[in-house]
Amino acid sequence: MMTMPVINGSWINKNKVLLVGIVSLFLSLIFLFVGNNFFLFALFLLIFIMLLVYNFVKITRQLIDLLGTRLMLFITISVVFLFFFLLVILINGSFNILQEESFYDLVFSSTWKPFSGEFGLFAVIVDTMIVTAISMIIAVPISLFSAIYIAEYAPKRFRNIVRPFIDVLAGVPSVVFGLCALLVFVPIVRDNVAPFFGSTISSGFSLFTASLILSIMVFPIIISLCLESFNAVPQALKEASLSLGATKWETVKKVIFRASGPGVLAAIFLGFGRAFGETIAVSMVIGNQELIPKSLFGPGQTLASLIASNYTEVSSIPILASALIFVALILFVVVLIFNLLGYLVLQRASRRWRY
Q: At CA 301, angle to CA 103 and CA 272, rounded to 5?
């Protein structure tokens, strides 16, 4: 016994334009050959052509959408590939210096004399960590309190005026910050701050000066990201806390900080990345001397400023290029490690501070 084929309703729904077009073509042929009605023939033929064009455009749009999706996938993969490409370039460029010097001698030796073939980075690494740590110690509390005031205490008019200035400050070129530090902070540290702390021989070009300008450069980044996190806290949570009798500060401390904790941590880690890798502004005020610091008001050198201040000598000392690429590799790896640690901390914090 033969069974009749069953036409699925979904198939009809997907291909209804095509079916209507076929029916229109069939009717146009009937009116032409059977009814001798040229007007109706032309009408239904026009309908068929319009439906055919519509179906073609629909297929073309789907093709364009598919091509666009594939293009975006290719761009995304290219960005990921760029990360590994940079890593390979830095590793390959560091081979020459690692063949000449051991890793231990490079990292734990304090003598940096390229013309003598000595490339110890220990003093520079210590200076980098000191400058970054002091800048974050200064920047984080000030940025958090500023963001809290703008988000929760400031009048709306004041908030609307201040917020654009913070965003603009985040985009100011670092050389502008360095020039301002050179003109303002260096004399202040030399004539006032250093003598106040008992240092009478400071030139103003010091680790402390570099830390000050770095902290200012980090302010707008941390403030902007913290504001986004604070504003993302549901208003219902704040109102519930206030309705239970909590003060404004208690609400900030126990509700807003807790709910926005992951975002605040992300802001701090991004600020650290900016401070750790900053080059021009630091190079202009730190003194550019590869010394283990005896005082915060003495000169020093960071990893990033070391690259900027020594790369002009690469042509006269070929192995120096490999040494500086190795320094760049250290910067790359350290920032990568802190970003990974930040990601792990954010994941744990998100689970811990989930309402």
A: 85
